[in-house]
Amino acid sequence: MKAHLTRRYMFSASHRLHCEGLSEDENRAIYGKCNNPYGHGHNYALEVTVSGQVDSQTGMICNLVDLDAAVRCEIIDRFDHENLNVRQEFEAAVPTTENLSEVIFNILKQSFTAAHLEKVRLEETMMNSFEYAGGVESQP
Amino acid sequence: MVYLTRKCEFSASHYYHNPEFTAEENQRMFGKCANLNGHGHNYTLEVTVKGDVDPRTGFVVDLKELKEILNREVIEVLDHRHLNKEVPEFLAQIPTTENLAIAIWVRLQNKLKVAKLHRVRVYELPDLFVDFYGEA
């Protein structure tokens, strides 16, 4: 039987939405207060969904300890209490939550192989969240 | 096609133990969940059904009927129970959240008359849940 497991994590980071290729006025018009020069921060909630066959010996898709360790080591330790704009992951991309979702998905896809990575869902605030499933549709 | 989700809660105790493993293997695999005295959770269950909206009623499913099925087939069986000792599915299977989602699906799948079961989601904790879509 194939099942999906989702685990939720928190981290806090700052960012400024600003595109070098646009004028000051254009940046202001597109990003609004997210373009304020000194940046601002969020408490991000990250949901990681993995899938796989439920092992008949353990009753589990994968060991949660391993998933927690991979997310802590590869994502939380990397981004928590950091300024996203100065990280190498965002040298050439604006650290919107769309782009951050894609970055996180791609890192986890490489580093966690004990189950299939289905998608990541990232809440920037209580009012908005973003999902990335590697470019394929995810199930409702 | 419209999807409708109904939410309910139940509380139960369990522990994780595979009799084919040694005590050390159980401890290593299941950590504090292997404590044979057990522990408990407040589970949240979300059941999603799908179907076409009936033009006469405007419903995908009769919510009252869905609630009765959930109460009879799931809540009365699991709520305030010890999963390992009182629920038939778990007398010979570990009551992980994965297996719990599958067991709830099996209990519900043939009980709905009009709508089709789409997803069973079981939250063991606010930061941990399992989805089962009936996939082999």
Distance between the termini of chain A: 19 Å
Radius of gyration of chain A: 17 Å
Largest sheet of chain B: 5 strands, mixed
Strand order of the largest sheet of chain A: 3-1-2-4-5
Chain oligomer state? heterodimer
Give a written overview of the molecule:
- The complex is a heterodimer of chains A (140) and B (136).
- By secondary structure, chain A is of the alpha+beta class.
- Helices cover 28% and strands 32% of the residues of chain A.
- Chain A has helices spanning 24-31, 64-79, 97-111; strands at 2-15, 40-53, 82-83, 116-125, 128-132.
- Chain A has a five-stranded mixed beta sheet.
- In chain A, a hairpin with a 2-residue loop joins strand 4 and strand 5 (128-132).
- In chain A, helix 2 (64-79) packs across helix 3.
- Chain A is elongated and about 60 Å long.
- Chain A starts with a strand and ends in an 8-residue tail after the last strand.
- The relative contact order of chain A is 0.20.
- The model of chain A has no long low-confidence stretch (mean pLDDT 96).
- The longest helix of chain B is centred in the middle third of the chain and has 16 residues, at 63-78.
- In chain B, strand 4 and strand 5 form a beta hairpin.
- By secondary structure, chain B is α+β, with helices and mostly antiparallel strands.
- Chain B is 29% helix and 32% strand.
- Chain B has helices at residues 23-30, 63-78, 83-86, 97-108, and strands at residues 2-14, 39-51, 81-82, 116-125, 128-132.
- The relative contact order of chain B is 0.21.
- The two termini of chain B are 23 Å apart.
- The model of chain B has no long low-confidence stretch (mean pLDDT 96).
- A five-stranded mixed beta sheet of chain B has the order 3-1-2-4-5.
- Chain B is elongated, with a radius of gyration of 17 Å.
- Classes of the chains: A alpha+beta (140), B alpha+beta (136).
- The interface between A and B is medium-sized, with 21 and 30 residues.
- Strand 1 of chain A pairs antiparallel with strand 5 of chain B, so a sheet runs across the interface.
